[in-house]
Amino acid sequence: MQEFDPRLIALVMALRRQGITDARVLSAIERTPREMFVGEAFEHAAYDNSALPIACGQTISQPYVVAVSTIALEVNDSMRVLEIGTGSGYQAAVLAQLCRRVYSIERHRSLHLEAERRFKALRIPNIATKLGDGFAGWPEQAPFDRILLTAAVPSVPQALIEQLKPGGILVAPVGEQPDSNLESNCQLLTKMIRTETGLKKEALIPVVFVPMLPGVPQD
Ligand code: SAH
């Protein structure tokens, strides 16, 4: 039997207390060593149920938000999922255990390379990564069964909606960037289903994500 890090078990218990009951998602989180996805400076906090800073002024999402997003996507092992915002790669690593393949795009070269290195070290075979601007999606691999944005948008870019299969689910933090003077959350994690006539939307929880920005910076 696989031995789990006691800190991972504590994290899963904290998620249960917050109302996360999906056994498949909890077990994917339990099998993902979050300390591999945070920098050395934050290793001690890797299993806290909080967001943490990573390179390039970005953040690794809070495990609770990863859990809610993953559950909302309703993935199964036949599905291909597009993620915008690889960041540390943590969300992609959790998702990859529950679907056929994750296609993850990141605009910062250093984050993209570091995430690729982690996926190799952890021997995760079913994540394809790309350095690029997520606003364009990944047309060569479209259409996708599911799409997850892990950077905030005022509204979902049309190119991404077009790359989602009819009946497919897209989850995104929708809203403006938080004003740094305000403590309040000002985006809503939103679940959208592509229907014949447009998108059926359901607001899930308030969240704070970094913004989705255009272009690929020269870093
Ligand atoms: N999913 C990540 C959290 C990502 S934070 C994790 O599990 O760690 C959001 C990420 O989106 C950042 O790394 C940021 O650089 C990236 N991002 C922002 N705008 C983007 C765009 N247009 N295309 C691709 N990535 C983008």
Explain what this protein looks like in three dimensions.
This protein has 219 residues and is of the alpha/beta class. Helix content is 26%, strand content 25%. The protein has helices at 6-17, 23-30, 63-73, 90-96, 109-121, 158-162, and strands at 52-53, 59-60, 80-84, 101-106, 127-131, 144-149, 164-175, 187-194, 199-207. Strands 5-4-3-6-7-8-9 form a seven-stranded mixed sheet. A hairpin with a 5-residue loop joins strand 1 (52-53) and strand 2 (59-60). Helix 1 (6-17) runs antiparallel to helix 2.
Terminal Cα separation, in Å?
A: 43 Å
Strand-residue fraction? 25-35%
Strand segment tally: 9
Distinct small-molecule ligands in the complex: S-adenosyl-L-homocysteine
Low-confidence segments, given as residue ranges, are none
Report the structural category: alpha/beta
Give the oligomeric state.
single chain
Q: What labels describe this entry?
A:
219 residues; alpha/beta; seven-stranded mixed sheet; two-stranded antiparallel ribbon; 9 strands; globular; binds S-adenosyl-L-homocysteine
Describe the protein's topology:
Blueprint: H1 6-17, H2 23-30, E1 52-53, E2 59-60, H3 63-73, E3 80-84, H4 90-96, E4 101-106, H5 109-121, E5 127-131, E6 144-149, H6 158-162, E7 164-175, E8 187-194, E9 199-207
Parallel strand pairs: 3-4, 3-6, 4-5, 6-7
Antiparallel strand pairs: 1-2, 7-8, 8-9
This protein binds S-adenosyl-L-homocysteine.
The site of S-adenosyl-L-homocysteine has 24 residues, from strand 2, helix 4 and strand 4.
